[in-house]
Amino acid sequence: MSIDTAVVLAAGEGTRLRPLTHNRPKPMLPAANRPILEYVFDALLAAEVERIVVVVGYERDRVQDYFGPTYGGVDLNYVVQHKQLGSGHALLQARNAVDGPTLVVNGDRVIDASIVRDVATEFEDSGAPTMAVLERPETAQYGAVVLHEGDVAELVEKPDTDEYRLINAGVYAFEPTVFDAIEDTPRQEGELALTETLTRLMSSDRVRGVRTEGMWVDATYPWDLLAVADEVLARGHVADSVRGDAGYGERHQGSRGDRVWVDQDATVHESAVLQGPVVVGPDCEVGPGAIVGPNAALGQNVTVGANVTVRRSVLDADARVEDGSTLIDTLTGQDVRIGAGTVVPGGPADVRVGREVFEDQRLGAVLADRVVAEGAASFAPGTLVGPRAHIGTAVRASGTVDEGAEVVR
Amino acid sequence: MCGIIGCVGREDETLDVLVHGLSKLEYRGYDSAGVALTGGRLDVCKQSGEIADLKRALEAREVAGAAGIGHTRWSTHGPPTDANAHPHLDCTGDVAVVHNGIIENYQELRDRLVSAGHGFKSDTDTEVVPHLIEDALADGADPETAVREAVEQLEGSYAIAAVVAGEDAVYAARNDSPLVLGIGDDAVYLASDVPAFRDFTDRVVYLADEEFATLRAGDYRVSDADGDPVEKTVETVDWDPEETGKSGYDHYMLKEIHEQPRALRQCLRGRVDEMAATVDIEDLGDLSPTGVQFVACGTSYHAALYGAQLFRDAGIPAQTFLASEYATAVPPIGDALVVGVTQSGETADTLSALREARRRGARTLAVTNTVGSTVARECDHALYIRAGPEIGVAASKTFATQLAALNLLTLGTTRVDGARSTIAALRDLPGNVQSVLDNSNAASVAETYVDSDAYFFIGRGNQFPVALEGALKMKEISYKHAEGFAAGELKHGPLALVTEDTPVFAVVTGDDEMATKTVGNVKEVEARNAPVVAVTDGQSDVERYADHVLEIPETHPRAAAVLANVQLQLVSYHVANALDRSIDKPRNLAKSVTVE
Fold first, then answer.
1. Catalytic residue at B246?
2. Is A60 in Cβ contact with B248 (below 8 Å)?
3. What is the pTM of this model?
4. Alpha carbon distance A173, A133 (integer Å)
5. What is the DSSP letter of B462?
6. Which among A247, B121, B284, B332 has the fewest CB atoms less than 10 Å away?
7. What values do phi and psi take at A140, rounded to 5?
8. Which CATH number applies to A5-217?
9. Mutate to test the interface with A, among B199, B238, B239, B242 (most CBs of A within 10 A)
10. Residue ranges of domains in chain B, CATH in brackets
11. What is the pLDDT of residues A159-191, one digit of tens each?
């Protein structure tokens, strides 16, 4: 592949995913057991990209600390977008770090390498700005696309009709002239959206749209991360491209079903049952009698005590779940403490976010970073708990619990 | 303390390889640098200042050759000037030498050479070497023999590399200073430390003391002091070459402070089992010490003070010594295990202390970050802290991982009650450090006190070494006066230094008798109108007497030391940054000190 550079946009918070984004941007939220951004890098590596420019901004330390200066032997060159003024503005920050044709990829969605390859191939054939296009039943959250003989004929952001069936996948290829095109684009309310520039390019020249398939999963709201994990586990995309399957140890004797991945540096008690699909990250400890899975992902250094049940849940790094707890349809941030005998019985529920109510969502609870729940607490379906909230012993929590709140019985 | 690089077999790229290597070695010293390449005759370029100054000097010149050597210097003999920069030449200009270490008999050799008519251009001990080689060549020796004959006359510590005009070869010798060969497909490299050539090869050969090596394109030979060939094992190093970039931070030190959660995870990985309450460390054998003596310098000394406390808590007599003192006044060792703590594994003072201990029959253990380092090879056992490369001269992540590793060492070699709670606290450390990094207000505290006259740090028990380390960090990177004291010592003298312009950082964790006593010391300070910054987990009432609070999560007292230290690292960093100091390369300091 002659296009060997990629710019990854990873500066945005993803405000609709609050309270999970309190300490990190959306690309660092977990898709099963690893950050979303890691899948993006894996896809770029598989497409033989040799240089990655990462545009960072909101809570950028987290991206830099996690990945460091290289990923899988590929240099990561960080550039900073100090104010988040749109995707076009973000890409513009990479101008001095790019000197030839480049791929541009949103860092906040899990993608397959095939999408990247399709865009690169089309760009090399046509030489025109190229965008990956996917078929999706729901287009309302995305940029809807209409293609005419492989050219993008229409690009409508968040359409309010359901007549569209194709969306912009957020994977592009450009010549460096795109930077001038962005600069020439008038700002809308101070912001520069990349799609505005694309719309201008469509009228002056042409923009190619390449129909592509393969895994493409996005999370808009916190509970979507549970569906993202389902998809990643179903496809078995748990091993990162750097360590590969070598990172996973021998099959645990309590494994049931296919797709049970246990990191070689995890400890699982012989009497624990791992029900696939399930992934257990490095440094995890799973105690006697625990039942983990199906559809469970434990990030690194998670502790699951004796006789704990974890089902269709994502427990992010450093979570500690003490003996006898039950977590169903639960999503935790990092470093969450769950005392003995805590129960999250699972969805469905009507979840209220601000003034909006999302009906019938399959969600037990979302516990943001560093929530502490003392023992014997229970969480009504759809409970959202803000970071560092403290849930006292035997509290029955429901609705929304604010950041840092102290809830006692 | 200097860095050496050498290369044969890269044809036109020799200069680029040398300069690249020097930039990777800059942490070892950076007050002057130079290169010598074997063209028709020798091309030499050397310059006082940083590598960047050398690069500028090189731009104005044509320097080429198929073999070459380079050097970055940290002055021990003579000020940092162009003349004192390495490589040094003989009278004919056909022999160039770079050297790391100290030649103890150089005055005697120099007197002899001067009276024989040799002209010296520098104040360095190194310059005797090219002239000795020149004499041997004049006597008809071939270059390899000439270099060997010169080296035979040297006493002291050295890693030496030499080139001779007309020979596409590099000659090298080692005694008490680090030297490692890198084996490429056609090229062979040589350096003080692996990162210098890690971008070109991951296959290395570590030279031992009194070994001699000749490097030619696609070929290297190692021989012992008698000239007999030595069969060396080629080892593979697994450091990611680019792990030494700044990944978006302004300074390596801030990057390394932020890397602490990751470094701690690496340090603990596969070694602890909380469920079984066991610690499993490779290479400790059946160690079960009845006494422990720690030897270390600088930050590692503070870690060792903490380590000795852990052993004493486990009922094992343990003491900590400054390595430079220990080496010259060795205490009775008895059956004690002697533990050397050194990040680089090449700290000369620590190496000599350990050698003295070994000479007296003691069993020795190295706690180090560097696989294949001298300390790891010389000691009976090695415990690696696995922090990954640390480039900032002021140690940060290596201190955190030293503390974690010393906990592993105690847990792995003693029977202690409450092992499970300690292991749980260790496993919680990465997340807790992340919490400090996410929420710290150290930057605003630093801003408040950036103009203060001096900074004092107090702590008790596990927090006493943290107070010392907090002060050392402040000294190293901000150049401000800072002292750490055991909290109880304050009233026995140092209190006289305390004024309203000397903030006192009090590390108070837990709410036991120790905390209560430290809070009492804080009141003494507060009564003298000194600003108080409390580093606390909020369990005691120290906040009532503090002007500022740097909060850490509540945890085991041992783990609290690591967390408190992170806050103090950040304060020092932000003070130094506000003062626009050279944070990664403080004046007069070098990363690993390989001279005594």
1. no
2. yes
3. 0.82
4. 13
5. T
6. B332
7. -60, -30
8. 3.90.550.10
9. B242
10. 3-242 (3.60.20.10), 245-438 (3.40.50.10490), 440-596 (3.40.50.10490)
11. 888 888 999 999 999 999 999 999 999 888 888
